[in-house]
Structure formats: C-alpha cells, structure tokens
Design a protein that fits this description.
Blueprint: E1 14-15, H1 17-22, H2 33-38, H3 43-61, E2 66-67, H4 68-82, H5 87-92, H6 94-112, H7 117-131, H8 137-140, H9 144-147, H10 152-204, H11 232-254, H12 265-288, H13 299-312, H14 314-330
Antiparallel strand pairs: 1-2
Helix pairs in contact: 3-4, 3-6, 4-6, 6-10, 7-10, 10-11, 10-12, 10-14, 11-12, 11-13, 12-13
Transmembrane segments: 184-203, 234-253, 269-289, 295-312
Keywords: Membrane, Transmembrane, Transmembrane helix
C-alpha cells in the first residue's frame, strides 16, 4: 500500500513489511507450537491461536507494508495464551480478555489498511451490523451512500472506527458473561455452605431440625425410622438434588451451543442441584406445620415429595437460565479477517 493511500489513523504505525515480520515470534510459522506444549487442553487458547494463524496468513500474502500495530498486538496475544492460569487469573479473566482484545486490535488495523478494502466492504458491513445497532453512527457511516463519497483515507478511518466499536461491544458482552459467571459461582458457594452447615449441625444434634411427620409409632422419617436421626437432613438433601438433576437435563437440552470463552452452564447446574437440596428440606418442614395435612402417608411418599420439591427450583432458576442465554448470545465473537 503506497503512502498516498495510507489512512490517517493507522498511517503513523506503518513500517516495512520485512522489518515488521522480523519482530514477530513465529511470523510465517506455526503459532500453535508453544501453546500445544503448554496448554494442550485449553480450547479458548486454540481459538486465539487459530485467529493468529489467519492474521499471519494474510500478512504473508500482502505484498505491501503492514502496520506495526498488527505485529505488536499479535505478540501480546501470543504471550497471553502462553501464560499459565491461576485461580486469580481465571476469576478475573485477564488472560482470555487480553488475548482476544489484542487479536481484535490486530484484526481492526489489518483490515483497515488492506489494499483490497473496497472488495471487503460487503463482509465488513455484514459483520459490523451484527454487533452495532442499525442507527449507530459508526454503522451508518459504512452505508454505501455515505461511504462511497469519502476519500480513501477517510474510508479507512471509518472502517477502523466501526470495527473498534464492534469489537468493543463484543468485549463488553464477554465481560458481562464473566461477571455473571462469577456471581453464579459465589451464589453456588453460599448454597453449598448452607447445605453443609445444616447437614452437619443436624447430624450432631438429631432434634435440632425435626423432619419426621407424625408422632410415636406412626412417625414417618426420611431415613425410614420412627425417630429422628442425624441422617434425615442428608437424605432429604440427596433426594432434592436428585429431583433437581432432572432440571439440569432440561437445561442441557435447551442451552444453545456457544463459542464464548466463558462457560455458564456447569455453574447453573450446580446452583440448581444445591437449591433443590435446600427446597427439599424446607418443603418437609412445611409439611410438619400441618398446612398440607394427609398429603404424605409413608416414607416413599415423603421421598417423592422431596424429589418434586428439588425439581421445583426450576420455577425460579429458569429466569436465571433465560437471562444467561441472552448474555451469552450477545457475547458471541465475530471476525472480519478471512
């Protein structure tokens, strides 16, 4: 690309292609080598590396100069995928988000500086309109009526700004998914602590949380005895978890496939199971008040009631499931490099 057609925004970052490639680790080679050695089971890292390979393939095929920002961003992404994970890095998502932000920066600058930009406009418009609202000024500036009357430098600036806006929308959506995942995890840990505390305390003190229906020889207890035992709560919790596991199957069947680097489904499933355990215990306590008199006449009926209560958590968690689906779909990645 000659100097006369260089865009004003990216023009200052352009260096000779040969000099730029000499700085890139793995330039023209296999970007996945180190990643496959260090993180052979990391799917998101492989996705980033595959995108780096595509960027490198376009760089290798381009006969003209390439902006230096592309090479710098690719090196940042490569370093991010090679870094080892830790609980703190996993929770904050720093490795994932740094890698994808760097890849998107390289993609933006490479596409905006492309010598065949006019032939790529149809794909660029289609990709941008999937992420930006139709009335967004950055998307409207790409419309042929407004775009075709601009000079070459202005066109490249418009493309660069639109791609940045599109990728920023993706970054914000991915951050929202991570934030929701972390909140679900914290809520799940709270439910786990509650279940363990209730089970442990009642195991030590049999009569602290009486869950037997009736009195005397006619008493119906979860474990099948005629008197409260330390295992009553644990057994009810297990039945509630079993009922909630049916809702987990429903969740798996209705969850749409996603390539977002953050996964929500396993944590949603854990919340359902733990919440089902709590509801099973609470439901039996309600039975003891006499509000549902004569509903349960034997141990089998009591356990089935606990199963149903475990599944009943679906009434509340389905709202979380719907919200999670919306957040994940907004975070679906997009690409303009082909």
């Amino acid at each position: 690309m000659g100097t006369e057609v260089r865009p004003s925004v990216v023009g200052e970052l352009v260096v000779a292609a040969a000099a730029g490639r000499s700085e890139v680790v793995g330039g023209g080679g296999d970007w996945s080598t180190r990643v496959e050695e260090l993180h052979p089971a990391s799917a998101w890292r492989m996705s980033v590396v595959e995108r780096l390979q595509r960027l490198q393939a376009e760089i290798d095929q381009r006969p003209a100069e390439v902006p230096q920002a592309v090479h710098v961003a690719m090196r940042i992404a490569a370093r991010a995928v090679e870094l080892r994970s830790s609980p703190a890095r996993w929770y904050s998502g720093v490795n994932i988000e740094r890698a994808w932000r760097a890849v998107h920066l390289a993609d933006e600058v490479l596409v905006a500086s492309s010598p065949d930009l006019p032939s790529r406009m149809a794909a660029i418009r289609a990709t941008v309109t999937r992420k930006l609202p139709e009335r967004d000024p950055r998307a409207r500036a790409l419309a042929p009526a407004a775009f075709d009357v601009l000079g070459d430098a202005a066109r490249r600036d418009v493309v660069l700004v639109a791609l940045r806006g599109m990728h920023q929308a993706s970054h914000d959506a991915a951050t929202a998914v991570r934030s929701l995942r972390n909140r679900i995890i914290l809520f799940g840990l709270l439910l786990l602590a509650i279940n363990l505390a209730v089970g442990w305390l009642t195991a030590l003190h049999d009569h602290m949380l009486p869950l037997c229906l009736g009195t005397g020889a006619d008493a119906i207890c979860p474990t099948g005895t005629a008197t409260p035992t330390g295992g009553d709560v644990w057994w009810l919790q297990l039945m509630g978890m079993l009922g909630a596991s049916i809702a987990v199957v429903v969740l798996l069947l209705r969850t749409k496939p996603s390539v977002v680097p953050y996964t929500l489904t396993p944590y949603q499933a854990v919340v359902k199971v733990l919440l089902g355990a709590i509801l099973a215990v609470v439901g039996v306590l309600i039975l003891r008040t006499g509000l549902l008199h004569d509903l349960v006449g034997n141990q089998a009926a009591l356990l089935i009631f606990a199963l149903v209560l475990g599944y009943s958590q679906q009434l509340g968690t389905r709202l979380l499931d719907s919200f999670a689906d919306q957040v994940v779909q907004r975070a679906q990645p997009s690409a303009t490099t082909t």
